[in-house]
């Protein structure tokens, strides 16, 4: 991530490097998230299986699109986006999702925590981007809107969740 | 992967466990592959950028579908498919793709090697499945046909490749 | 609107409650607006009937989508969005639209005033959201862009409007 | 609703006025219903959230179409259909829906009662229209078929509903 | 129209012949109407040209569909539907539409009269069919609903039509 | 078919039970018919094979839709619709279709008789429903219109059918 | 057809009037033809019913499009296109189609003669337009191509037509 | 099923007859299954109604397609496929599905048993076809893959199914 | 425009150069026209705003397609098509469109004059192409047909245009 | 066909060359077949023209797809697929189709023989591929399934074919 | 090609025979061309593989459509179009395409020559048709436009083609 | 640009005028850009022709949409957007694009410079809008995101661009 081949007209190199660092972290988060959501999609069980199984797939597709936009923003800033699993695992600051085959509600509880972590980090990235580059900020705001909506889907299942 | 909740009618538990082990290895391979193809999609450069950039995306989509079918076959066999990046990196027998930003031809050469490894392993998995379960065999044959076609796309770029 | 079951990670409860109050007011405005636009759609008459009758329907659909996004934002903030007509009428700060069957130009004049009120209020809500939450701000900016475009459609009919 | 500009060829003015009165009441009912269904769509919670949340949206769309057909039938009869929320609340003979954020089953129980009221009134309107105008009767029969099908969806959730 | 090759199970021959006679008259009316609407589509002029020109085409398509359903109902009743222009002109009880190139409002006034005639006749045909055959009645009710809606489109242009 | 869990608002239990009995008989008829049409689709031969083979498939799809609407109407009336083949064969009042591989015209002659029986029974069911419930009547009229149209397709092949 | 409000830039008034006269004759021919094709569509019988019944409908749609293009070309030339059935019958130089319910082959023979007449006349109109206006010529060539293709469909049925 | 009019080039008559017998049994199974799945689709109740009701319909469509492919394979082998309900009931070796209106979980348990039976029989048919004809084997493998996937959907609902 | 890299087989270089010159002039005209139509699309006002605003957009799209076909024909003839605004303004023989914000009728009058100029020039280009190359002629005839149709749309608004 | 640039991982060169030889023969057969089917599509006549004319086109499209898959499999095996007509005619082991303009039944009889030859050869190719490469075998099985289905379409026309 | 069963109304037999001879030659050319383009599609290699591989497929589809239109024009003229490969090779006046596996540029150079030959011949056919039949001329002009556009695609790759 | 007929509610006239001036400059830039991109689309040559030729078209479409949104924002602010080529050339601060027919890489280098200029100016416009109006800012941010992505497409071709 040292040198930049070029950067976006009107942005300085140092600012670009700070943005790249922040975006690469978000790219790892999104790659981790869509793998995790698919893992949950395959491992949920119980009488509400089909509803939750099907709810997860459009979110997987959306998060894959988020990863794509983040990676291409890194490339626009002149750097090389990293998307391989080895680098992801080596560079991430969080642990692997550990729930295997389990009831839908158990997975939703675990995913709720995943989303809390990701959204908190996204909001910090927005603050940084807001100081440096309105286009990057706009990308992050758009993605965070999507993530916050999906966390509500998850949380709505958990409210009054005795059944 | 120890116990199975159930397995497919007409299949024994031991055979099912052998199939699950083989399929889980292929699932890791497919998850690794679609991440790697996206990584290449973002990092290719040079005068043939757009053609190769666009050629990779439908293959990403196809390989993601392969991962889905493998994981759901594992679940049908009564086991829990594993799709998280930590487990993938811990359990795989190959290394991370290491090419960063580079000319399209350089990436295609590196991907050609990736495909050679994956196809060889898939053919071994087909032999095993052919002994135990025609439905699993059919899934693997279908996926291998797709992978062999895409490797030809890659190789066709490399023939007489002086330009 | 007293207690919140939860709120979005990174947002405080007080800020969330201030956002909910503002968003609920906008939700009432949007529900009122799509009902009013449909009412006008049914009651316009005169030689330009079909053009204006058909112009209103896509705007109804867009405003219904705005209401949906506002309500789901309130839910994401942990509160309960209110969408029933009794509560709308009891809590709104403006009066019912009063034009019945009338010429297209008369309805467009009345609707121009409706939009002036709504846009002014939306801009105040944007200022508040801009201080508290960039995602809510982005939703309101997006909706206000749409409303300002449609008001221009209305006003363009009224310029030099002697015919 | 006093004078009619014209009415449908072959229908008398008095019969038209009786039809208009009945249809306006049904129009208020349909406007109330689609607002109420959206309100429930936003406020349902619990482990069956996503299934019920998604089941309500096509019904909202269908009921909005019913309101459109009723209002345009009133206009065909030469009268002015009323679709504003103030008039709806002032003229309706039923109360606002009062359930806020609540479990899916609780909302479905409340909506079952709403449908019982609406369907009973629709059947009375069909009897009246059957005496005066086969086209109006056909519109109401078509809409009642749709409402009765959706009430069955609701009721099927409530049978043996201990979970 | 003398003999019937067969008729619909459960219908008598005499009733079938009465229905055929009534439906053939309506078939001539629909063939005349879609030709007339196309004629108006080509001949409207004036500052509201495009709006009215485009409004007429979907109605042409709908009326052509009405003719198709009427003709095929005649065939189901065992008779031969007649759709040629010579027979239409020889057997109709109304005159040719006489407006040539003219302002949109002038055409709409002339078409309003055309619709008044057609709708009155359709309602008489419904009364007859209501006594003999509920399926034929249903076809005619469905078509009359469509015609009455389009007449309202026309009339809405003519209300307060000083411009 | 003894007790009803509930019935449609505005309908009495006895009337509902009479409707259920009649609709269950029609449901058996429609399930029998779509199986029979598929059977014919597979067994027609001769120089007009492809035209008749293809004509039958959309009718199969339509009749399957009729069965669905009838069964869901029974459920709306609070009863349990029966769709299994054993119950169908035990409860029907007609015999199995007996034509195997045969020329298209031979199948069309046999199907013409099948349709004559079904349409006659449908018309009786319409009479009953006309006394009890306009929504059920409307469903049956709609389906009978479709069946009578398809019988005409069949009969049109048989007129002057020497070739 | 006396005066022209305007004509196409670059065309003289006399030439325009000659074109209008020729095009109006073709417009009558196309209106007659699509009515006649529909008449045949409803009246064909015999063991090849469905194949011929379905073959005619796309041709009806194409010929209706031809009428539209001819009429709008007349309007472009500043004249008023005439599309009413009374004027068509009064001004045409050919007789009504006289075949009623009849075997497909009998209708195809009769339609073959209709097409021979229309194509011969179209070719004369092309010669005239070729002298005066390449755009009108192009419209007529395009339509004649379509008519000649469909006549081949008809004729192919009649070759070696002993069955 | 005695004589074959012809058989597929390269296949002997005796082998063809053995395949026909096996395929006819599978055809009865698929016709029984899609009727049974529809029956369940109409009779499920309880708080998870909508999710299971909607899950069954695509499976009905898929199984209907399986029946079609089996029947047409029988015809390709020169025999006459049998699809009527009387023959199905007379020739099947299993009993009618007996669950009426019942909770979703109860139906899923009953359907799980149905699938276990069908899949076991399909696997035996695959063994036979594998010895005689690779194309028939491929059809059966493809269908069994689909059935095994759907049984997993059912079973996933039943795991840890205390709710 | 001096030398040609190649030209179309069968065409001489001199003829090609004459065609290129004529086509480049038409390319400038089409680029000017679609910019002008968009300018009018944005600047029309008055009570018929929406109808005219929407009528212009499909014409913009069509004229952009005309520019594309002309430019690619120039390239096929071995020359370099020029599409930049500086060259367009420097090389055109007509003036900029000067109407700003104005009533729809005022813009339509101004556009009518624009079309008269373009169509006259197109007809001269057709004459030239008719002598040299039937394919180029065909392109120009096709485009002129479209332009003449749209001028009629404009003129139809201006006939009897007192309102 | 001498040397291979490369071959599929896991396959030996000799096996690859044997597969290429067999696949090239099938490629010639498919290219011949789709040309022959189009030839028949153009040359069928008689009263069943349209049904058979239209039946052939989807089969042409399917066979073209078969040729594509075979050729690309040859390329994957490292060889050069040959698709030119001169090589096809020089290397094929069968004669040109000789039926010109003729009745549909006559063409279907001739095509039945063509299919018998092709299917027999395909089955031999499947046996070879089954020993060497499951992916090639799967391609051939898939294509043979399609060809056997279409031969049944042909044969179904010829059974009891006196008309 | 001796006798004609009939010919197009208004065309003489001798003229028809001259057109048939010319069109049959073009039909052979188009059949040869689409086979050759597919051959190139499979055999191109080198670093620009995917772009050229994909560019060829839509052209294959277009040329197949040209062959269809030419063959059906021959049939309309009463003759029998010949589309088999043996007749094509025996009757063509050019040689087989000889490039096997080769770099994209090498294929494009070879195809450029193929197009030069075909376009020159098409232009001669246009001259002949222009004297005899405007509809045939129009078909050939339309196809030649398409071929000339695609030759430009090829040539644009070869300009300045050092890479 | 002197007076404003009205402006957006909540915006002052002076601020509106400053926004209009800035937006009009961007509108000229976007009109210039889409013309220039089309010019390049037609003039690129060399062995990578088709890939770059096709890459430019979606960007043309996107930039045309940007121009539309900017112009309509100017109109919403009460001013008259200017879109004619004469005004564009007279008012722009940059020169015409001067590359004619040239290799793809040469055009991409020239376009890279064009984008650098446009993006720098857009970022200044964003700063201004950020002070005055969040809706205008949002439009500009959205468009700049698109332009920056496309510049990356261009630049990716130029990295390591020796071929």
TrEMBL record, chains A, B, C, D, E, F, G, H, I, J, K, L:
Transmembrane segments: none annotated. CDD domains: DPS (cd01043). Residues 21-159 form the Ferritin/DPS domain. Gene3D superfamilies: 1.20.1260.10. GO terms for molecular function: ferric iron binding; oxidoreductase activity, acting on metal ions. Belongs to the Dps family. PANTHER family: DNA PROTECTION DURING STARVATION PROTEIN, GENERAL STRESS PROTEIN 20U. This is DNA starvation/stationary phase protection protein Dps.
């Amino acid at each position: 991530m040292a040198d930049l081949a070029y950067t976006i007209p009107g942005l300085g190199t140092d600012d670009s490097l700070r943005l790249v660092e922040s975006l690469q972290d978000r790219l790892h988060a999104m790659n981790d998230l869509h793998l995790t959501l698919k893992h949950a999609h395959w491992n949920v069980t119980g009488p509400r299986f089909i509803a939750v199984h099907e709810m997860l797939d459009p979110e997987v597709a959306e998060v894959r699109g988020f990863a794509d936009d983040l990676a291409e923003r890194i490339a626009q800033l002149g750097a090389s986006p990293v998307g391989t699993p080895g680098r992801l695992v080596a560079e991430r600051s969080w642990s692997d999702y550990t729930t295997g085959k389990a009831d839908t509600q158990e997975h939703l509880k675990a995913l709720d925590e995943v989303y809390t972590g990701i959204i908190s980090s996204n909001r910090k990235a927005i603050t940084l981007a807001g100081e440096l580059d309105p286009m990057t900020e706009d990308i992050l705001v758009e993605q965070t809107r999507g993530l916050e909506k999906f966390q509500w889907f998850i949380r709505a299942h958990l409210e009054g969740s005795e059944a």
